[in-house]
């Protein structure tokens, strides 16, 4: 087993008043390092499908404004659509109770709910994590596949650095040709 994610996102304390919550998109993208707060998928291949989630759903907001940065999460469409307005406590101040509900993805406790298998599959570690796992549909294969593609991309970068030290132009050309073809396909994922 490996950690669920390498680092917990840190949401800055932005108090800028905006007319609509989507005005915070670029700041959220930066704070979440281009990753979904819930599943940790990177937005490189799915930029079009990333949205802004209200951690406490809008229908339960009483004191929190729908444009408050502290309640927004950069989220992939899959997690945002799965979470929807699920909020078992029906209270904006109580995030979870009796192993049902959510933990803010910027809270270090969120990482304790999940681990990854060596192939990138997400697994739950706690009862609350299990509830979130099924509500967010973290069992969907896309999360594992995106993780694997990112790992392959990192490995390719390492191999390219090693190839720079090898004095065999034919081998370099063949391997670099494969890398370029792989990268061409992954770039196409973003335009689908």
UniProtKB/TrEMBL annotation:
<dbReference type="InterPro" id="IPR003615">
    <property type="entry name" value="HNH_nuc"/>
</dbReference>
<dbReference type="GO" id="GO:0008270">
    <property type="term" value="F:zinc ion binding"/>
</dbReference>
<dbReference type="InterPro" id="IPR002711">
    <property type="entry name" value="HNH"/>
</dbReference>
<keyword id="KW-0255">Endonuclease</keyword>
<protein>
    <submittedName>
        <fullName>HNH endonuclease</fullName>
    </submittedName>
</protein>
<dbReference type="GO" id="GO:0004519">
    <property type="term" value="F:endonuclease activity"/>
</dbReference>
<dbReference type="Pfam" id="PF01844">
    <property type="entry name" value="HNH"/>
</dbReference>
<keyword id="KW-0540">Nuclease</keyword>
<keyword id="KW-0378">Hydrolase</keyword>
<dbReference type="GO" id="GO:0003676">
    <property type="term" value="F:nucleic acid binding"/>
</dbReference>
<feature type="domain" description="HNH nuclease">
    <location>
        <begin position="23"/>
        <end position="81"/>
    </location>
</feature>
């Amino acid at each position: 087993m490996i950690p669920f994610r390498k680092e917990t996102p840190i949401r800055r304390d932005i108090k800028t008043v905006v007319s609509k919550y989507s005005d915070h998109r670029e700041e959220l993208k930066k704070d979440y390092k281009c990753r979904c707060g819930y599943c940790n998928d990177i937005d490189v291949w799915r930029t079009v499908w990333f949205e802004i989630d209200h951690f406490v759903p809008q229908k339960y907001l009483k004191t929190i404004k729908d444009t408050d940065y502290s309640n927004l999460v950069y989220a992939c469409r899959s997690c945002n659509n799965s979470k929807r307005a699920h909020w078992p406590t029906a209270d904006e101040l109580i995030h979870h109770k009796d192993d049902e509900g959510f933990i803010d993805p910027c809270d270090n406790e969120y990482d304790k709910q999940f681990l990854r298998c060596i192939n990138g599959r997400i697994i739950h570690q706690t009862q609350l994590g299990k509830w979130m796992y099924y509500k967010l549909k973290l069992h969907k294969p896309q999360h594992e596949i995106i993780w694997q593609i990112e790992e392959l991309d990192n490995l390719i970068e390492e191999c390219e650095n090693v190839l720079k030290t090898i004095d065999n132009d034919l081998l370099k050309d063949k391997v670099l040709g494969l890398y370029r073809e792989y990268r061409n396909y992954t770039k196409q994922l973003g335009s689908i």
